[in-house]
Design brief:
This protein is of the alpha+beta class. Among the domains are: 190-270; 295-473, Jelly Rolls (Sandwich), CATH 2.60.120.920. It has six helices and 21 strands. It has a seven-stranded antiparallel β-sheet, with helices on one face. The protein has a six-stranded antiparallel β-sheet with strand order 11-20-13-14-15-16, with no helix packed on it. The chain has a three-stranded antiparallel β-sheet with strand order 4-3-5, with no helix packed on it. A hairpin with a 4-residue loop joins strand 6 (135-137) and strand 7 (142-144). Residues 281-475 form the B30.2/SPRY domain. Residues 201-246 form a coiled coil. It comes from Oncorhynchus mykiss (Rainbow trout). One of its GO terms (cellular component) is cytoplasm. Residues 15-78 form the RING-type domain.
Amino acid sequence: MASSSSLLSEEQFLCSICLDVFTEPVTTSCGHNFCMACIRMYWNSKDLEVVENFKKRREKGRHGPPPEPGKVACDVCTGMKRKALKSCLVCLTSYCETHLEPHQIASPLKRHKLINPVENLEDRMCKKHDRLLELFCRTDQTCVCQFCTEADHKTHDTVSIEEECGERKAQLGKTEAEVQLIIQDRQKNVKQIKLSVDLSKKDAKREIENTVQRQKAVERQAEGFIKDLEQEITELKRRSTDLRQLSQTEDHLQLLQNYPSAVYKPPPTKNMSEISEILNKEMEKLPEVKLKRIQQYAVDVTLDPDTAHHKLILSEDGKQVRTGDAPHRPDNPKRFDGHRFVLGKVGFSTGRFYYEVIVKGKARWNLGVVRESIDRKGIIILRPEDGLWTVSRRDVNVYVSWIFPPVLLSLRKKPQKVGVFVDYEEGLVSFYDVEARSHISSYTGCTFTEKLFPYFGPSDNDDGQNSAPLIISPVNHTH
């Protein structure tokens, strides 16, 4: 704790001119105490010099520029105020260059504490003791005067304002250095993100270019097959004409001579099954490339229990849903009560998103996206007009896209994992067989005006025949 002087110290009764105990003490208008003889002697010796300087400076000051906005004005100037050069913490006054001169030439005033110009100097005085706030109480975290340390803050930890400011400036410097490190780290993160986005764009562009090249290659190959087949058709038509003419001839000798070559020469036909297989393999590669590209838009989907039908059981991690006797859930406006549906927690109103769901072991299921305002109560028609974009499995090999009227899908394999992709701005909802790397169905030309939520419908249990859960699966980008 800082030491403090007595309330009535000897120093308070010393004249700052003769440095002795006051003789006929007087107080000037600015609050300073002197001996009557000392102050008169000083005034008599300095009056002429000071007055002359004041005249010169005042004349110069009248034509000087006013203080700039935000600058502290001189408290002594009359008329046009000049910019203050210093503020005196003893006089509680701000002085311009002219009016500061007494503080620079008069010995008693030289002892005053001058600082860079500040406003509201009265705020630097203790309101209780009317003394300068020159100490800081660390206990109460407030500025105090010398008298405060003898009263309310007597037992507190106090230091000079300069010492406290020095420590705080050091702490501010340390904090500022830490902030600079954080800024550098964030700038590094921004740079990395920009680099990742740039690489992603390049990869996507390269994938698109590869897809276009594959498509063109398939088209060229198909055109070659078509050209060969058309030539084959022309040759077959010519032979058909020859055979018809030979069958109608009346020249028996000609018929018998040409008959062997006409009958036994095999037609120049190509192996169509081989051609179809080659084309199918090339065509299958196209959705595979596209699926790989859209998997980069994978999002983490978690089921929202507040939307789940009361007959649905959700896993603790919110990644699985199956039909069964679930714990009682209070009804709320978000909960479905007419269909065994549950939504994802997060909706999307811009950009692209993709997620995958394991449907292995299920005989029936519904997957897709719904708009936020979809009616949660009662029976819902599974169609885009009512806010659902859906693909369903019904019975053994019946897959349905609910474009109205519903469209039966012809799938060569039973999907074990279904990928759902949405391009909000493009108005596109697509479904993929992830393991077969093939396209299932798409809704195109859609108009979305609100948030879209992933939705899941595990359907009825069917006495255990459809008890397997729908499982939200992490997207494997290495397929």
